[in-house]
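Milestone 3.1: sequence recovery, worked example.
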């Protein structure tokens, strides 16, 4: 199904990507999962827990998410190779660590957009100037 870099995509592949998203993002996800499967059990368990959390609170779009998960695999592969203890990776507060990690990939974070949307809607409802007029001029 791979068309190569110079060959145009068939209509079928174009349609498939409209429905499912870019196929390259899916390939990157599969490579990430294969990499994490090779980790020692304790590291794999930590990655899976972090992955589960990031599925809810991480970047929403494919490219940001794929980059984040690849970096996550890099971090844990290097930590496993160095023998870094799990607690040393996460510190005392795992949520704080994951939130700081996810902040590096904020461009696609749906939760950030929703927070901004909520704040703006409340400001408008309260009759406060949100500065929207200045940006549209």
């Amino acid at each position: 199904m791979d068309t190569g870099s110079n060959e145009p995509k068939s209509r079928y592949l174009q349609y498939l990507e409209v429905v499912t998203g870019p196929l390259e993002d899916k390939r990157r996800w599969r490579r990430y999962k294969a990499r994490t499967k090779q980790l020692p059990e304790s590291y794999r368990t930590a990655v899976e827990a972090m992955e589960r959390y990031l599925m809810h609170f991480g970047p929403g779009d494919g490219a940001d998410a794929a980059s984040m998960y690849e970096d996550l695999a890099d971090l844990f592969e290097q930590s496993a190779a160095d023998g870094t203890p799990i607690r040393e990776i996460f510190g005392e507060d795992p949520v704080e660590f994951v939130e700081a990690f996810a902040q590096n990939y904020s461009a696609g974070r749906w939760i950030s957009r929703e927070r901004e949307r909520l704040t703006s809607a409340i400001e408008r409802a309260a009759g406060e100037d949100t500065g929207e007029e200045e940006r549209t001029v």
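The chain is about 70% helix and 0% strand. The domain at 12-126 is CATH 1.10.1900.10 (c-terminal domain of poly(a) binding protein).
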